Every structure is written in C-alpha cells, then in structure tokens.
Amino acid sequence: MVDASAQAVGKREAGYRAADMVADGMVVGLGTGSTVFFAMERLAARIREGLVITGIPTSFQTAIRARGCGIPLATLNDYPVIDLAIDGADQVDPGFALIKGRGAAQTQEKCVAFAAKSLVIVADPSKLTRKLDAVVPIEVLSSAYVPVIRYLKTIGGVPVLREGIKKDGPVITDNGNMVIDCGFGTIGDPTALDIHLSSIPGVVTCGLFTTFADKTTVVVGDSNGCQVLSRNGQFPL
Ligand SMILES: O=C[C@H](O)[C@H](O)[C@H](O)COP(=O)(O)O
Prior knowledge:
By secondary structure, the chain is α/β, with parallel strands linked by helices. The chain is built from six helices and 13 strands. It has two domains: 142 residues, Rossmann fold, CATH 3.40.50.1360; 73 residues, 2-Layer Sandwich (Alpha-Beta Plaits). 30% of the residues lie in helices and 25% in strands. It is globular, with a radius of gyration of 17 Å.
C-alpha cells in the first residue's frame, strides 16, 4: 500500500532536485504529470529570483501550468535541441528503460526526450521495478484502433481502449488520437517490444522509452531526501 502523502513528499523532493540541475539560459523540456509539477513549481521560484530559461511543454496540462506560474514557453519547432528535459515515469528499471503515458502524453514526451541532450526522470520509489510489467500506453490513430487491437492480441497482448473520466467514450489525446493500454505481463526485452510496437501501422507512439538510457539520470525522492541514480548503478530496491 502506497502512502499518498509520503509519495507526494518524495515527488516534491525529486522535482525540486531536478529543477536545481537547470542552469541559466537553458532550454528545458517540461514533461507531464504530478512529479514534473513540483519541478515546475521550483523552476518558477527560481525564475522569480532571476533564472532565465525557455520551457518546452509536452502537453496542454503542462503548458497551462507553466503559463500559470510564469515559466516562458516556446515550441520544439522553435528549439529543436533541448539542453535538459525533466519528466516523470510510470515504471523505471535498473537499465533505465521506462514505461510512460499514464496521462496520455507520451508522444510529445518522446519527441522532447529525443531532442534533449540529457533527460532527468523524477520519481518516487513506487516507480522503481526490477522488471517492467505495467500496461504499455499506446497512442493510436482513431482510424486504425480496431486493427491495432486485433494485432496486439495476436502477439499476446491484453489491449484495452482507454475510456475518459468526465467524458463519455474514449480518451482523445492532445494530438487527436486514441490510447490503448496493453498488458504484456513481465516484459522480457523492453527494447525489442518498443521497436515492435512502434512499427505497427496506426501506432503513433508507444509508452516504452528504451533508447534514451545513455543520457538519462533518475532522481528518486522520499521523505528522507533524494537519491540520484546512474544507469546500472545502485538501484534501491
Ligand atoms: O503521460 C504521462 C506521463 O508519461 C507522466 O510523466 C507519467 O505518467 C508520470 O506521471 P506522475 O509523475 O504523475 O506519476
């Protein structure tokens, strides 16, 4: 059972530490979700003290929050090279393969991670796992969700079309597409599955992030503070 208030403290610790890694003048990728929210809170405080940055948001939610707290924004097309991106994750393994997309933002997050010189993943300990086994969110063209679901079943997946909350029918992403959450049990080879899913016609982006590990740092926060993890280094699990 996860203690929600302890989890929030950990998220704040991680978010604040990542925000303190940002230097003056940087172009900063702003991921999506509750942990990145704390990083933006800290960045906003630093901006009020004189820090100058340009933020590249990965979702409507992030753009709205960033505007609300005074973080200047631009687009990935304006700044195709990002100095540092801060993002959350749903699961992180010791080799820094990730599952992302609980908030259906994985497509823009993946574009920003690709463009970033370094990627800082902020997480609480509940996100760490020896083996990825969460459902993989898959953004899919609405015109092709049926054949994609059909195909996912043939490769052993358990796909479910994501439904909205406070909205009848399927979730529609910021990019106008649908999302399939697909279970695969324990994922033996995340890189192979990432490549496979990404190659299915109709799939826009899958939530497996397996190609950014070399430039990734993971910051894990809990009520005692933060640990900054290196790939295949000490993994507190
Ligand atoms: O689409 C959502 C993103 O991939 C989030 O970064 C991820 O789900 C983690 O979110 P949170 O920090 O709220 O747990």
